[in-house]
UniProtKB/TrEMBL annotation:
Gene3D superfamilies (UniProt xref): Clp, N-terminal domain
Keywords assigned: Repeat
Domain Clp R per the UniProt entry, residue ranges: 16-160
Organism this protein belongs to: Thermostaphylospora chromogena
Pfam families: Clp_N (PF02861)
Protein name per UniProt: Clp amino terminal domain-containing protein, pathogenicity island component
InterPro entries linked to this entry: Clp_N_dom_sf (IPR036628), Clp_R_N (IPR004176), CLPT1/2 (IPR044217)
Source species, domain of life: Bacteria
Length: 163
C-alpha cells in the first residue's frame, strides 16, 4: 500500500501527509462530484459518492461485507442530493462537516492501529460524524459505526491473510 509522507495538495490545498494514494484519489473524485452537482462545497455526500465509485477501494469491500452494494449506495445518495444553481468557479472548499469527517477518519485509523488514512477510514469518518445526509443514508442501509468498523477489521484481516 502506498502512503504519502510528504505534504501534497488535493484540489490545490495541502492535505494530511498520511493519506493513502486511494484516499487522495477519493478526495479528488469528491471534488469532481461537487463540481458535477454544481455545489459550492465538498460535502460528505460527495465523499460517499467518490468512495462508492472507487470499486477496488477498501471502503467498498467493507460495505460489501455488510451486504450493502455500491450501486444501491450511489442511487440513494443521488436521490437525496439536489443539484446546485451554478457551476462553481475555481477551487471548491471542503465543507465544515467534511473537514470534521477527515479529522474523525484519522481518529478511526488510529483506533484500528493504522498510521495512515485509507478509504475505509474515510467511510468510518462519515459514520462517526453522524449528522450528514451521507451518514444518515449509510445508517438507513444498515451501516452503523460499530458494524462497519467490524466489517473493516474483517476485510483488513482477510487482505493481510491473502498477502
Amino acid at each position: 500500500m502506498r502512503v504519502f509522507h510528504r505534504r501534497i495538495k488535493v484540489l490545490h490545498r495541502p492535505v494530511s501527509p498520511l493519506l493513502t494514494w486511494n484516499a487522495i484519489r477519493t478526495l479528488d473524485l469528491a471534488g469532481k462530484e461537487a463540481a458535477d452537482h454544481r455545489h459550492a462545497h465538498i460535502a460528505p455526500e460527495h465523499l460517499l459518492l467518490a468512495l462508492t465509485r472507487f470499486e477496488s477501494g477498501m471502503a467498498v469491500k467493507a460495505l460489501d461485507e455488510l451486504g450493502i452494494s455500491p450501486q444501491t449506495t450511489l442511487s440513494e445518495v443521488e436521490r437525496h442530493i439536489e443539484p446546485g444553481s451554478s457551476a462553481p468557479a475555481g477551487e471548491i472548499p471542503l465543507s465544515p462537516r467534511t473537514e470534521r469527517v477527515l479529522r474523525l477518519s484519522h481518529h478511526e485509523a488510529t483506533l484500528l492501529g493504522k498510521c495512515h488514512v485509507g478509504t475505509e477510514h474515510l467511510l468510518l469518518g462519515i459514520l462517526a460524524e453522524g449528522e450528514s445526509i451521507a451518514a444518515r443514508i449509510l445508517t438507513m442501509m444498515g451501516a452503523d459505526l460499530s458494524a462497519t468498523r467490524r466489517g473493516v477489521i474483517r476485510v483488513l484481516l482477510r487482505e493481510a491473510h491473502e498477502a
